[in-house]
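hey so i finally got around to running both of the ones u sent me last week. sorry it took forever, my laptop kept dying halfway thru and i had to restart like 3 times lol. anyway pasting them below in the order u listed, first the sequence line then the structure token line for each. didnt double check formatting much so if smth looks off just lmk and ill redo it

first one:
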Amino acid sequence: MVKETAYYDLLGVSPNCTQDDLKKAYRKLALKYHPDKNPNEGERFKAISQAYEVLTNEEKRRLYDMGGEKAIKEGGMHSSSPMDIFDMFFGMNRSKREHGPKKGRDMTFSLVVSLEELYNGSTRKLKVNRKEICEDCKGSGTKSSNISAETCSNCRGTGMYVRVERIRGHANVIQQIQSVCTDCSGTGEMIPQKDRCKKCTGNKTVKNSKILEVHIDKGMIDGQKICFSGQADQDPSYEPGDIIVVLEQKDHEVFKRVSPINLSINMKINLTEALCGFQKTIKTLDDRTLLISSNRGEVIKNGAIKYIQGEGMPTYKNPFEKGKLIIQFFVDFPESIDLNLIPKLEHLLPPKPIVDLSMSDVEEVAMHTYNVDEDEQSHHNHRNNFEAYEEDSDMHHSPGVQCATH
């Protein structure tokens, strides 16, 4: 008795169909819904391939008939890609269809750079460790070119070892566990000890270091990737992947990059400069000196923000175009003032507003300097004392007596 028929329905066959019926159905549907012919039916093509793979495998089909798709998933059955199933059915060589051999994994390295390097451009050297094809054996892994590697008998050249186990508590459910073959380390080949290359000991590759010259262009940003194509680990069975260098900008003590092209700085001025004007210099990231001045009669408020056009970061790939240098001012007020100067200041500055003290409910109070850390510590101590009091009160309560809570 078949538990569910979704896979059979998808292929348009009955649960008692033969292998020939499945092949005919798959051929027709796979050609109709292949992504190259029908790009919008990718999910349907995937489902058709999965149904065909399960139903043409005797063990998988038996498991599906007993427990449906859930049993297949719980059984840990290995699934091939839809393209691999298609290629295998029609006898295609997938590597040729993809126009080239398999490519190896990319390697990623971080490179810490300064803001000056991103502003001015720079060239850095980066040492990376990678695998390189053994020069002695030219990647064969053997002592002589007359000796060839043998197919691993344990995995039969697949590089993977598959074992079947029954799931505990489910007598009729099995699972396939796939792992890398320990005999050949996943290569699918075995070279006898006496025939192995002495330099690479049969591994075909050796570990070596390479110095890369990393060119940092003006205007590059934090996190930008620089790619060295085909410079990753080498292996005779595939093309090398890429080495990707990721720039990591360290903080600057003066400037902050607030966008790809804008810089900002904080500038302190005293009260005299805020009220009466000032001149200040700024040392740029390319070692120039800028002179800035406030306008005559202009008062610079605490937190005021100004900017200088064209003194920000250079634009990537267009370094002669630069962004803004944003300046935020913070007025440094004096801690106290000479009492003798107060009358003079009151004469020079705008008059103070007059407070009405004739009201009967006016009460004069004293102000104190507020310390956030001390206040938080005091609050913390108070909370601990309160909790200790609560615990002590609970210990003295009589059984069945409820206390009042606040």
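and the second one:
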Amino acid sequence: MDTIHLYRRRYMPDETVELKDDLILYRDDNILVTKWNILKPRKDIDHGISVYYMKEGFKISKVFDSADRLVYWYCDIIETEYRPNENTYIFHDLLIDVLIYPDKHVEVVDLDEFADFTENLTLPAPLLAKALRQTNNLLRFIYEGHLDELTEPITSRE
């Protein structure tokens, strides 16, 4: 099988980065599981494992510090673009993020960035609406107690 290429497309800052060092642990038509180290050194986080739910439109990452302690679960709202001829995935970060701390405290972040993009019409309106729906679906899963089901592709591969 050809090499799989992974890219993260961010709008703030405007950049596309190849995730060339990410190790793919599993892939099927709906999910992709990767293990990674952070791209830029930080004191608070060091590495993690992520599951991309490509149809649902979110990525859930279990993020660790350098002592291998859980810092938080970090959930990105994403749009997945797959280019089969290139065997390439581009994960577009749709700005809204949800953090779940070890004590189960949930925090929704970066809504201010999302509001800026909404005001400036930087992203098409249907994509903005889709991001809100995907956030709502993710929060519903979390609030209804289904986080363990969403994180199982990670925890079963640790």
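quick thing i noticed on the 2nd:
The chain has one domain: 5-155.
anyway thats it, ttyl
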